[in-house]
Amino acid sequence: METSLIPIEFTSAKRFAPDDLQRQVDLLRCNDTLQIVANAMPYIVLVLNAARQTVFANQKLAAALGLESPAAAFGQRPGELFACVHANETNGGCGTTEFCRTCGAMKAMVNGLAGRADIQECSIIRRPNVEALDLRVYTTPWQVDGEAYTLFAIADISDEKRRRALERIFFHDILNYAGGLRGLVDLLKMVKDDKERLEVENDLSRFTAELIEEINAQRQLIAAEHDELVLRLEEMHSLQLIKDLVEIYQGHEVTRGKHLKIVAESEDLLLSSDRLLLRRVVGNMVKNAIEASVIGDVIWVGCQKVDNQVRFWVQNPRYIPRSIQLQIFNRSFSTKGSGRGLGTYSMKLLGERYLAGRVSFDSRPDEGTTFQICVPI
Fold first, then answer.
1. Rounded-to-integer distance, Cα 251 and Cα 274, Å
2. 18-156 is classed in which CATH architecture?
3. d(CA 278, CA 274)
4. Which of 94, 34, 32 is nearest to 58 (CA)?
């Protein structure tokens, strides 16, 4: 096996020499039982060697990835086959980045090659269009002629994850809004004082607007994932956009006791973009920063020109632990519980696939967390 001097973050970067790889491919190609069973399975099936390289793949892999034949997968690792955004971040490839520590597929591979069967879930973002995949992977150790392999089966559970997320949103979040609206309507019936009545009416209007916004956000996300969004470009001023967002979120219940401020040095820049999508992305950054903060914290919102782009950023004083940072843009990951995680993922999807921007973040114990999007002027 060839060796590598590349610094490794998680697993070995070593790969088999071409002659050894071809020998393994030929050995499994002659296994008629493997061919029949694997191609009869409803899942994608790979056989990985000790270096996690593909030495066998069934026809379902070729169909799913648009390959001419399963042979096009030989020598590649799963993250490389599925165009994971992290697969080429190091010369070592799939399995050798810091992000691979949190990958369910990688954990299953390691266990399979160690002689332990495993089942894990894996959420990846694919190049180049921020396409999200949620997978369930099954690994089974296998010995052939004294060499260790692992059978690696993949089920696409993206639709299942989307359904669960929508169920949670509509059965929990939307129901909470509906409950709040009912409470306000009941209160409105009892209020006699004109001033109190006006306050309740304002709360009722705000709750209704937030309910509509939540429904529209989910509809927009579904359309974006199906490439059905149409950009509506218009000229706008960067400073007015963040002023509008600050005004909206200052009235949120979650902002109570916290301070939402605009950076004094923010520049008022004229740009052409899709106003609704850009508001959605920056608005999600503001909302997440508020939710991550505690009473007394200051959340800063700003904008400035960087080269031929406009940079919008939101900063809060709270640090995100590194283990969470590694999963922050995954579609199904959230610190808020099962079925969440759509906020940061939608920032990435809308900001990069549709607005031609770049969404990123930085989090440090002494500086807090800053999310940003840079979009073309």
1. 25
2. 2-Layer Sandwich (3.30)
3. 6
4. 34
CATH for 231-377, among 3.40.190.10, 3.30.565.10, 3.30.110.40, 3.30.470.20? 3.30.565.10
pLDDT in tens, 54-101: 999 999 999 999 999 999 999 999 999 999 999 988 888 999 998 998
Which structure tokens are listed for 325? 């940072």
Residue 285 vs residues 194, 246, 265, 345: alpha-carbon distances, Å = 37, 11, 19, 11
Mind giving me the DSSP string for 96-158?
-SGGGGG-HHHHHHHHHHTT--EEEEEEEEETTTTEEEEEEEEEEEEEETTEEEEEEEEEE-H
| pLDDT tens-digit map of 340-369 | 445 788 899 999 999 999 999 999 999 999
CA 175, CA 211: separation in Å to the nearest integer?
A: 10
pLDDT for 6-26, tens place per residue?
Answer: 344 567 889 999 999 999 999
Closest to 251 (Cα-Cα) out of 224, 222, 213: 213
Quick: pLDDT tens for 217-233. Answer: 778 888 888 888 888 99
- Which H or E run includes 26? helix 18-29
Domain ranges of the chain: 18-156, 158-228, 231-377
Q: Looking at residue 208, what is its pLDDT? A: 86
